[in-house]
Amino acid sequence: MTTELQHAVYSSIVQKNAHQRISKKGVIIVSKKAWAARAAVVGFGFCLIVINIQIGLRLDDLLIVYSNILPLYGILYLAVGWFFYRNPATGKVGNDLVSVIIPVYNQKAMIDMVIDAVYSSTYQNLDVIAINDGSTDGSKEILDNIKKRHPSLRVIHKENEGKRKAVAIAFYQAKGNFLVLVDSDSIIEKTAIAEIMKTFNGNSDVGAVVGLAKTWNSQKNILTKCQDVWYDYSFNIRKACESVFGLVMCCSGCLAGYRREAIQDYVPYWVRSKIHDSEDRELTSYVVASKWGKKQLPHVYSHLPKYSHKLMRSMADYDDAEDRGLTAQSLFNWRAVYVASAIVYTDVPEKFRGFLRQQQRWKKGTTRVNFFVSTFFWKRNPIMATIFYLDFMMAFITPFIITTVFVYEPILHHSIWIPLTYLGGMQAIALAHGLDYKFRNPSAKNWKYKPLMNVLTAFVTAWLIFPALWNYKKNQWLTR
Questions:
Q1: Rounded to an integer, what distance in angstroms lies between the CA atom of residue 279 and that of residue 317?
Q2: What is the pLDDT of residue 233?
Q3: 309 has pLDDT over 80
Q4: Which residues of 427-437 are buried (b: 16+ CB within 10 A; e: fewer)?
Q5: Which of 168, 185, 212, 318 has CA 20 to 30 A from 28's CA?
Q6: Quick one: average pLDDT of 6-25?
């Protein structure tokens, strides 16, 4: 594809994705009818939970009672994300030098557009570093040609050692006190970096930010349409909820920003680790961790118990959750927030096998980092801590809840109402998620696929926790 055609495709996709509007107070604008629908969904959800608990108590069946954990934490995300989120991009843009790090591995199809989009930013004081991690598909030659078009671009070629090693090496080469990470399959909008800098400049306690990721290839097939509406939920509800408390758990690698000082103490340890599978999640956890959690850095606090060292080493030695890992590290003394006005388009898997490989990688990395974060997160905001521990627990017990509701109850208790009620509630909430996507973005076409995505999540991806745990010590990308 020629550069001119690539830009034409980009312009077409951006035009088709009318943005959600944000008020001066940072509220994502929806109609009064949408607010009424939100209130009804939250109220309905809580009523359904109460009814199911009463049924469980009446039947003296604790399995029915505990099966309500899944909808409970889902309703908590909705209530907080819908009613309390405020976009944090409140400061001035400024003109600080920003280092943009783009790790590249076998991405010849998109890397032209990715780098051109960065140089098309309204924010111009940029130090752009593209680090080629041993690509074998011709990306090396393409990067060298792009440098002719953008002379200020710094291209680093290295042997293949994994994304995290590439990001860490670029970190040492970066000149700016603010770092923006952009994946090589993700294309930022012109104002994305400016919105990130408005957030840093308006919030001195923010150490990490994540933008709104939208799917680049959302209209390709049913799978990408499902992922499109799932991405909207993941960012505009889940991350919006976490952002209320300054505790976003994963600044996704497609577009994440960090203050250098929030992660600089961790990177030296990170770069010495055995690299191959988890950096953005890991840095995020570092940003917002408590001082108690920070003591788990084994190379700094060697007097801690062995289990703390093992958890930290496990998180730092793998590349399967780099975004959550980076975020986890930045959580020590800083807040991590979601910026709904910083937008990026990312390429998602179009084939089911690739999707499953990606989801398994994420499951493994999330589990690895959450073990570490769980050792200190109880010290944070009690509401967000409750949501976090419920979420962590759900990764392990969701398959058992599904089995209880759809196998145990109808077969052993001959109760068809429990699975029907559960499925009805699950799909009603999924429909509400989809409608909310439509409320915020009237041009959205894929909102109706959220119920299908919820079925896929409950009956397929939730079960990937078992192969993820089975392959817990394997260090592999599982994507390309």
A1: 10
A2: 92
A3: no
A4: eebbbbbbbbb
A5: 185
A6: 63
